Amino acid sequence: MSEELSEKALVRRLKERFEGERPAFLRKMYIHVNLSTKRFREVWSQWWQSEAPPRLEVDMIPVFERHGEVLLCGVEVEFFKGRSRDFAAGLQQALSFGLFGFDSLVLWHIFSENLKNSEIEKYTRPMKEIAEGLDLPIVYFATKLSGESGFEFFAPSRYYSSTVVGPNSFLERMKDECEGRGNPLLRNQEVLKARKTLKVILKIPV
Description:
- This protein is 36% helix and 27% strand.
- It is α/β, with parallel strands linked by helices.
- The chain has one domain (7-201).
- It has a 7-stranded mixed sheet.
């Protein structure tokens, strides 16, 4: 994938790759979901009597099969093409997804294949230390692009390897990580209501 690719274009291309090989455990893949649209506000207001939802766009929402139910993952994608980004880019956005009732919150840093591994590690090392050391309620993925549809893992640490995996293997690992790290705000009844609203917007049976 070209270094000149924009972040939005990259997300669209990833969706094509993931849906092209659609594993059985992937029910649906949504991208660029704007949670402040008129339609979402109307549904939201049925549950939340006061303020409208904040302005928020979710880059990617994979809907995974989980024991007859669905696993909704809110994914914030940050595309690193050079060395001018903050190593914690997207962290605040990913954490904010918790208020909307996602089952799991994901921060995915994607690095251009033109970047050296030593440069990538300068970003991923401190981000992993923060996520793991503070026990943040997010799943942190860091991968380097390889060709049209390959990923080399830098985080989570257990997957760190120069081995390149394809779309299905990546999604399987994302599902496993999301199942193991849920959104703690789902203990809140209002957040559970927000989850129902989210499912209505995504046309998922409540």
